Predict the 3D structure of the following.
Amino acid sequence: MSANRQAKEVVVEEIKAKIQESKSVVLVHYSGLTVAQDTELRNEFRKNNVQYKVLKNTLVRKAFDELGVTAFDADLNGNTAVAFGADEVSAAKVVVDGEKKYDGKISVKSGYVDNAYIDVNGVKALASIPSKEQLYANLACGLMGVVRGLAVALNRVAEKMGGTQE
């Protein structure tokens, strides 16, 4: 076996490991980014705990094929980068925000979440979900409103029961 083939097999194994340990994978088409824009985009990925790599389509296809996923074959052509997310939504959010920010110089091809292929629309829907922190904040605000309403109601009942006698 040639050294080149062995090196490629090692890369395929690394890609498979990244796919399996990531909560989400987004395939990204990129074209025409300046160095400054690419650096800014990579920093945004890092800040959101997403690994962003430009990989050979054939090696990514082989990794997915070895995992039993063949839905990506049509998406793995042209310029392709792969974003491996530590959570379900961060990779999708950065890519979709980047689409708007960089005037279409990057775009979503497809994604892989919960061991399932998702198309462009699925990735964009995933990106529209608020972050976990935002969801927690919304829940806390909702609960605070209920608690406050209960406190006001109990206070009024106490006043009516004789707490306001002169």
Q: What stands out?
A: The beta strands are 24-30, 50-54, 80-85, 106-113, 116-118. The chain has a mean pLDDT of 86. The longest strand covers residues 106-113.
